[in-house]
Amino acid sequence: MGLSHRPARIAGMILAASMNSDEFSVVDDSVVRLKRGDVDALGTVMARYQHRLYRFLLRLAQDPFAADDLFQQTWMRVLEKIGHYDVQRQFDPWLFSVARNLAIDYLRQRKATSLDAPDAAGVAPVERLSSDSPDPLEIVLEFERGAILAATIAGLPLIHREVLTLRFEEDMKLEEIAEVAGIPISTVKSRLSRALDSLRQRMEFA
C-alpha cells in the first residue's frame, strides 16, 4: 500500500506514538518495514526516537510550539523520503538530518536566523587552551544535567547549540554529526571547539 493516501491515519499514529513513551523495541526491522511501505511500523520507530528528536528540535528552535510542529513535520517528511533511505546506513543521522533541514528552514523563514553569524560576544577563532585551564569537555559533563548548563547552551548561536546537542546529548560521532549537518568533519571539529570554548567562557561568568 502507498504512503501518500493515509494522511489522517498517519496524523493519528503520530499523536498516539507521542503519547506512548514506553513503546521501545528493535527499530532496525521497523525501519526496513517502513521503507517497504508498511505504515504500521511508524509507531514503533517514533516511539524509539520521539524524546531525542523533540529535544533536538527544541534546542534548535528554542520554542516548544515550534518544536511540536517541526516534530510532526519531520515524521511526515520521513514518510515522503523513506524510499530514498539506504538501509545499509545508520538511521539516526538520516532522521536527524531530515529534522535539522526542517528546523533550519523554519528559522530562516520565521526568525531570519543567520547560521554564519558569530555570537553576541564576537567569538574569535578558538586558540589552544593552556594546560592549567579547565577542560571544557569536563565542564560539559559535570553540568550536563544542570539548569545552569541548559541556560548557557540556550544562549549560544544556533551552530554551536547544534553540535553540542548532537555530540553530548545524542552521543553522535563526529562523522555522524557531519552527516546530519551536511558539513565536512573538519568543520564539525572547528564548530565543536568554538562551542566548547564559548561555553566555558560563559560558564566562568555565570
Structure, described:
There is one protein chain. With 206 residues, the chain is mainly alpha-helical. The protein folds into two domains: 7-110, RNA polymerase sigma factor, region 2, helix turn helix motif (Rna Polymerase Sigma Factor, Chain: A, Orthogonal Bundle); 136-204, Winged helix-like DNA-binding domain superfamily/Winged helix DNA-binding domain (Arc Repressor Mutant, subunit A), CATH 1.10.10. It contains ten helices and no strands. Helix 1 packs across helix 3 and helix 5 (91-110) crosses helix 9. The longest helix has 20 residues, at 42-61. The protein is globular and about 50 Å long. Residues 18-26 and 117-134 have low confidence and may be disordered.
Index terms:
mainly alpha, single chain, 10 helices, 206 residues, Arc Repressor Mutant, subunit A, Rna Polymerase Sigma Factor, Chain: A
Averaged pLDDT, please?
77
CATH class of the largest domain: Mainly Alpha
Shape assignment: globular
**The CATH topology of the largest domain:** Rna Polymerase Sigma Factor, Chain: A
Quote the beta fraction.
under 5%
CATH homologous superfamily label of the largest domain: RNA polymerase sigma factor, region 2, helix turn helix motif
Number of domains: 2
Distance between the termini: 55 Å
- The CATH architecture of the largest domain can be named as Orthogonal Bundle
Order of helices and strands: HHHHHHHHHH
Biggest β-sheet, characterized? none
Q: Tell me the total number of β-strands.
A: 0
Rg on CA atoms, Å:
18 Å
> Helical residue percent?
55-70%
Number of helices: 10
Broad structural category: mainly alpha
- Which segments are poorly predicted (pLDDT under 50) over 5 or more consecutive residues? 18-26, 117-134
